[in-house]
Design goal:
- The chain has 2 domains: about 5-120 and about 315-330, Nucleotidyltransferase, domain 5, CATH 3.30.420.40; about 135-310, ATPase, nucleotide binding domain (Nucleotidyltransferase, domain 5), CATH 3.30.420.40.
- It is about 40% helix and about 20% strand.
- The chain is built from 12 helices and 12 strands.
- The strands form 3 sheets. The protein has a 5-stranded mixed sheet with strand order 3-2-1-4-5, sandwiched between helices. A 5-stranded mixed sheet has the order 8-7-6-11-12. Strands 9-10 form a two-stranded antiparallel ribbon.
- The protein starts with a strand and ends in a 23-residue tail after the last helix.
- The structure holds 5'-O-[(R)-(carboxyoxy)(hydroxy)phosphoryl]adenosine and zinc ion (ZN).
Length: about 350
């Protein structure tokens, strides 16, 4: 049996958790910065690092306390090494190094995307995943389509060429005057709107497995906003930078039609990949996998079992880092104390080779 402490600070959640054997959550503490960033309408990197520094000690202590164990019972300390915001990653990694030195426990630098993958191992049903599986990671920072052939074995089939799916939700949410983060608020607004009110573009990208959401975002902006009038620009210099929401459009219809465009393109590509690679299941994780329309459409189009985590494990957390850490620990990974962060770290079978 392994007891792994996970530490996650790659973006805007300061998180620590203890996971037993890669499957059972002994504790899972997440200090969210959503309220802090809401005033900026997005994650502000400098503010994020500072908040991580303030909270990390308390969050880790709480994770140990909630799990009812001491540092001596841990087998290893797993920490997110990347991808993510440099300043934020550094806070977690330096704290983890300090702990590793103080406790003599092994240090494991874990890929954040792999963490999202392993959130599925913390999720019912607990029966073993039937490889090969297709994995769709859709979060605020990432959109990745992976073929997973076994533990730690990934083939990257595609990903976003511009905005991540969650980022598109957040940007369109802001455009529509909805609170941050955009995803859940667009989903809520869409419930009272028509998904066929607008026919928004879906980038097909030559039948590749890549995604692009910037054209869609621009199309929504064209329908939803107007530039301030000449007189307003004269009254308020700089106003031309701020497109304003039109008063004669339905936010609900725009939200529903935008959501349908994102959900359709994600589901179509994932379903096609599932068929092309003859997988047994589809796994989905990351913040956007909380979206009910996406869950439903993906299941319908792929005609396969689709697994996704419960809400609290969809968004960033440290239990998923500890779960991935468990498999890496068994495989023999031991990171050096001089390990650096990897802000752009892609997840492939060779990801841990160097
Ligand atoms: O996984 P996560 O915490 O972020 C990263 O690791 O980057 O996911 C946060 C993202 C945000 O962009 C948020 O808008 C989106 O997930 N999200 C949703 C929903 N809930 C959260 N997007 C669509 N529908 C939702 N219900
Ligand atoms: Zn994430």
């Amino acid at each position: 049996m392994t007891y792994i402490l996970g530490i996650e600070t790659s973006c805007d959640e300061t998180a620590a958790a203890v996971v037993i054997d890669g499957r059972t959550i002994a504790s899972n503490v997440v200090a969210s910065q959503i309220d802090l960033h809401a005033q900026y309408g997005g994650v502000f990197p400098e503010v994020a690092s500072r908040a991580h520094i303030e909270k990390i000690g308390f969050v880790v202590e709480q994770a140990l306390k909630d799990a009812g164990i001491g540092y001596e019972q841990l087998d290893a300390i797993a920490v997110t090494r990347g991808p993510g915001l440099v300043g934020s990653l550094l806070v977690g990694i330096n704290y983890a190094k300090g702990l590793a030195v103080a406790t003599g426990k092994p240090l494991l630098g874990i890929n954040h995307i792999e963490g999202h993958v392993y959130s599925l191992w913390l999720t019912e049903p607990y029966n073993e995943v039937d490889f090969p599986v297709l994995v769709l990671i859709v979060s605020g920072g990432h959109t990745e389509l992976l073929l997973m052939k076994g533990h730690g074995q990934y083939e990257r089939l595609g990903g976003t060429l511009d905005d991540a799916a969650g980022e598109a939700f957040d940007k369109v949410g802001r455009m529509l005057g909805l609170p941050f983060p955009g995803g859940p608020n667009i989903e809520r607004a869409a419930l009272d709107g028509s998904p066929v009110a607008y026919e928004f573009p879906r980038a097909k990208l030559d039948n590749s497995y890549d995604f692009s959401f910037s054209g869609l975002k621009t199309a929504v902006m064209r329908e939803a906003t107007v530039m301030p009038s000449a007189s307003a620009r004269r009254r308020e210099p700089g106003a031309e930078k701020h497109a304003q929401l039109r008063t004669d459009v339905s936010v609900n219809d725009l939200a529903a039609s935008f959501q349908r465009a994102v959900v359709t393109v994600l589901s179509e590509k994932a379903a096609r990949a599932a068929k092309d690679y003859d997988v047994n299941e589809v796994l989905m994780a990351g913040g956007v996998s909380a979206n009910h329309a996406l869950r439903q459409t993906l299941r319908h189009m792929s005609e396969l079992p689709v697994r996704y985590p419960p809400l609290n494990l969809c968004t960033d957390n440290a239990a998923m880092i500890a779960a991935a850490g468990h498999y890496r620990f068994l495989e023999g990974l031991r990171s050096d104390l001089d390990m650096d962060v990897k802000p752009m770290w892609a997840l492939t079978s060779e990801a841990y080779a160097e």
